[in-house]
Predict the structure.
Amino acid sequence: MPYSLLFISSDKTTAELVVPKLREEFRIDLCGSAQEALAQMRSRLYDLTLLESELPDMPGLTLFRIMRDTEFGKKAPVVFISPRKTEASVAEAFGLGADDYLVSPCDPRELAARVRAVIRRKHEIVGEPGGALAISGIQIDPSQRRCTVNGRRVSLPPLEFELLKVLMYKAGRVLTRAYLLNNVWEMSGDIDTRAVDAAVSRLRRAIGARAGKRIETVSKMGYCFRDPEEFLI
């Protein structure tokens, strides 16, 4: 499945220039305002956000600050795009946690390369999809469909294994129920979100009470696999 991008831009010229190239390798959604983007981010988790500095309802940096104060945007990878590159604007963007800063108009090939680099860096931290991963005593190996907890083999049904895999690969990020439905069940509105809660409960029981505490319920949002000590095997 291709990585997903959210492109927040009210500049049709820039969008027409770069979006066709990005769509060759990424799944991309477009938003023309800050409010539209916030609504979109609440319903779906993206691998990376492209954020332009000038939006019709608020400056891009203001939206960036709002994102950083939310669970869904706190750790989201962001590439900031601006027609100006002043020392102050660059410092503020990187101070908020921007992963890269480009001056528009962007060369589509350069932008695609920068996006690939940011996503690659992020997945070097939490694990590439398909690779074995260990986090605080919980190990999964998708190629073998194997799960162990503190050295003990745990037999998980396919659904619970896929749920644990998605949570661990996105460790530290809050995943909404809608996101889990889309990425584990590969469905959106066709399943009651209570199915997610039931599956999480079964998963917690299967891996044990102590390990199950790693899967945190985030009120009114969804779930997050919490642990700072994560590493690739």
